[in-house]
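Form 7-S
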Amino acid sequence: MTSSTPFQETISFLLTQVAKSHRHKAGQLLTEIELHPGQEMLLKTLGHLGNHATHSELADELNVKPATVSRMIDRLEQYGLVRRCKDENDQRVSLVHLTKTGQSYEVAIDEMWCKLEETTTANLTTEERLILRRLLLQIFNNLNAE
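Output:
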């Protein structure tokens, strides 16, 4: 960015606006399946990790603070989607398990993400989608370098 580039015309500004719009749309779609933004990621991550994980494993996978994971788990536990229990091998460690109800959300979450993907990439050709993906990955890597 040069000092003559108006703030609102920067790529960073546009990325921020796109991220806000994307999160808002995701929130609308998640409401339809009675979840809040971020909860679907925790449920999918638990499924990916074999239906159980520690708080720290989830925080690492989701790239959030352990306190954030704890709040998410509290709410999901109230909904009956996850349960906490002590690790059989180390009673100091608490494991989070997907319940049967939590596992049943997998298809709904996948369908929700498909809808979001369709909305996000509407009017883009396959080639444009591939280019956009490559560019976003490069930006992600740039921001996470060091």
